[in-house]
Structures are given as structure tokens and as C-alpha cells.
Amino acid sequence: MSSLTVATSPDAGPGLGAALAAALRYVAAWRGQIVVVKCGGSVLEDGATGTLAEDLALLHRAGVRPVLVHGGGPAIDRALRTQGVAPRFLDGLRVTDAATMAVVEAVLAGDVNPRLVAALQAAGAPAVGLTGRDGGLLRVRPRAPQLGYVGEVERVEPRLLRQLLEGGWLPVVAPLGVGPEGASYNLNADTAAAALAVGLGAAKLVVLTDVPGVLRAGERVSELTPAEAEALIQQGVVRGGMIAKLRACLRAVADGVGSAHVVGADEPHGLLVELFTEGGAGTWIRPA
Known about the structure:
Elements: H1 14-30, E1 34-39, H2 41-46, H3 52-61, E2 65-70, H4 73-82, E3 89-90, E4 93-94, H5 98-122, E5 127-131, E6 138-142, E7 151-156, H6 159-166, E8 170-174, E9 176-178, E10 184-186, H7 189-200, E11 204-209, E12 215-216, E13 219-220, E14 223-224, H8 226-234, H9 241-254, E15 259-264, H10 270-276, E16 283-285
Parallel strand pairs: 1-2, 1-11, 2-8, 5-8, 11-15, 14-16
Antiparallel strand pairs: 3-4, 6-7, 9-10, 12-13, 15-16
């Protein structure tokens, strides 16, 4: 992909016109399309959401139909520690007994989600908060006995979300699911976002993170096929938390989402640049 340079000088003439025309073509192409955006808990904790609320509000006003899915890990850790409970993890997943699940639900649904909704409303977006429990949106099964109330998405019931989108709302979804006998389950936000993107037939999944995208030798990789992305994981180039993000993107693309993107949350208007320019601002995972 080649970069699209937007000229700002009054003397730019045709260059500025071409840039504006290209941007408007992208906007027109995306009107009416569903874009699922995932923002991680570490990004929210660091206050590095930057222009996210403004970007989502602009997308909504342009006729794109965004859905925001959020995490909240650091806020959950803090809440647990105030109760004298040390957070426990197994293979990167939170061990969630009944008491921990109550804290997870309270933090995600009662703190992080309302704060994001308020920020979006302040930016002019008609945001509405919900969890994966509402309307049976995310039906899950237990992931492993030793993890407790940690779920794996079994199916998506998108009717409620579709009604909200068709009504002009911007949904903000906390990654909770409903499991056997109606119990609440904790979900990895990356996999929840990927499942929602597939269930909604989204055109794109965008995962916002605290780095500019997938990095190789310290440089951003602008475009990857699924095979190339998997090779980076196997070679150890992609490590840590980025593995879960990249695998969520790969699952989404494999199951019919048009494309997936990993974008730095602190890049000014990075979401808009990734969607509406040729060069983008992150890493584009495209179908094979």
C-alpha cells in the first residue's frame, strides 16, 4: 500500500483536492458498514485513548455503524487488590472464582462501560452501554475447569445489537457472557470482539493497542496475509499480549470479516487514518 499524503498548505492546489476526493470516496464506501472496534483495558488505564471518542463520533455521523468492545483488566486488578485479593492468571487468562466474577462484572458493567459511554456522549455520539449478557448476546461455555468462570463464545445472538444499530445507536459492549444456567462469565475482550464481528457480519475488526501495530525489528508492518501473520507468531516476532490480538484478527478474517486491523490507540485519529487512507496507521490483516 502506498501512503496518502494530505497537503495542508493553501498552495497545495490539486494535491489537496485529490486527497479530499480520495477520503470522501472511502467515506462513501464505508457508509452503512459495521465496524467493530476493540479497546483494551491497558489502553484505557493509561489514558491513551486519545481521539477515540471523537473518531467514533465522526464515523457514526459519516454513516458508518461502529460497535465498541472494551476490556478492563487493570481496573479489575485494582478493585481486587482493594479487597485484599491477589489477581491470579493461568496461560494469560484470569482465574475467576465466584467472588472474582462478582468484581469483574461490577467493574466492567458498572465502571468502565459507563465511563466510555459518557466520553462518547460528550463527543456527540448516541452511545448506549450493554454487556454480552444483555439479550443473550454472547452465549458461552466454560473454557476450562481450573479457570472457573472464564468463558469461550459458543454463539452470538446479534438481534439486540442489530436493533440498536438500525435505531442509530452506537453500542458499547462489555466482554461478559451468559453461560450454563444463566451464570455470568468473564471473556477475553479480543476474542469477544472477534466473535461479535463475525456474528454481525462486520466489514472490519479494528483492535486498538498500546503499540503502533504489529512490529518487526521495531518497525510497523503495514500489511499481512494470514499466513504471514501466523509465521510471525511461530517465529517469535510477535510475543506476549499481541499474540491474542493477532489470533483474534485471524479468526475474524477466517470466519468472514472483510479485514482486521491492529492500530495504536495513541496515534491521533489513527482509527480514521486506518479506515480512510491508503497508507493507514496500523497493520492490516487481509484475507488470503
